[in-house]
Amino acid sequence: MQQAQHPIHSNRTIKSQPVAKSPSRNPPITEHLAYLLAQANREINRQLEARLRDEGVPVEQWRILKVLSDGKGHSMGDLADEVLLNHPTLTKMIDRMVSDSLVYRVQDPDDRRKVLMYSSERGKALTQRLNALALSQEAHIAESYGDKATAELKRLLESLIDTAT
Amino acid sequence: MQQAQHPIHSNRTIKSQPVAKSPSRNPPITEHLAYLLAQANREINRQLEARLRDEGVPVEQWRILKVLSDGKGHSMGDLADEVLLNHPTLTKMIDRMVSDSLVYRVQDPDDRRKVLMYSSERGKALTQRLNALALSQEAHIAESYGDKATAELKRLLESLIDTAT
DNA sequence: CATCAATCCTTGAATGTTCAATATTTTCGA
DNA sequence: TCGAAAATATTGAACATTCAAGGATTGATG
User: Fold this and answer.
1) For residue A99, how many other CB atoms are within 10 A of its CB?
2) What residues of chain A lie within 8 A of the CB of B32, using their CB?
3) What is the ipTM for the molecules in this complex?
4) In chain A, N or C terminus with fewer CB closer than 10 Å?
């Protein structure tokens, strides 16, 4: 139950100072880097998601499979960093992937606190199909957005990540 | 079909074809645009989150407040698009913000299916403090990452969003 | 103008994520 | 070598998001 508080007397009359530019500009949200990144990420992620839907696999699982496709064992901690998930989320997602026989756990013989993750044969086969889907998205972007712009954007993003981490 | 089944005898011996470049390159995940965007977004979002923590407000609520700070009523549908949330998520977040007296609902008199959202006085005051925090982040990025690079990155992101939507 | 379709928002159930706490193993200093 | 502290992964409970369905209102069509 909401009463119409006092929406209408928008006091446009106040109209304070002619906007001092330097100390406190007030840009619209669409000019904030954080917002632009969120928006671009959301859109590109959606497109990728749509392609991966052919195989019924969420984007995060593709990342996991892709990282594991080097055949080496990755500890849960390292993997979490690599695929941009925090630990409990990864644990539970891995649980599902183990149920689907896409990956398996092996206790690290050198440090028994660690669990090393490996991709199964089934996981590897799926990875190949997913790679093709992901590459087709990259190709589509490069085509519609332009090779130059794509390369430049990637370069700037890498550099931002370096700076920010 | 490579038989790496069990982890340790990594048969580097198979070593298939010398990698045909054109038809199926296989870049590491760190070269995918989708991944770079996710990573950059995650990092910048984290930093912003950390700053907003002073006021105990999640990033999404800042976006909502910022959009509503124009004083005009925004329908839930429009608002959802503007703040990059889907409808049910927004509804429930708005519920919380109403509990906190930051915003309020008014039924649109011209179309009674719609609900118009407004920022309360309390919400507006908070918005100002949040704006300052967000701006300080932008300033910090511009400083460490460079004005030029920041501007160029924003430009490319806007352009990507245009292309991709 | 009556009805059927479309639009808009919300809800409830299922699902997923996160935080804090726990168990296990390793590391390291006294 | 012993014990405390750190590192690693998991779990359970709290919380948030999503999907599908629903109720209300409006628009369009015959």
Assistant:
1) 8
2) 134, 138
3) 0.85
4) N
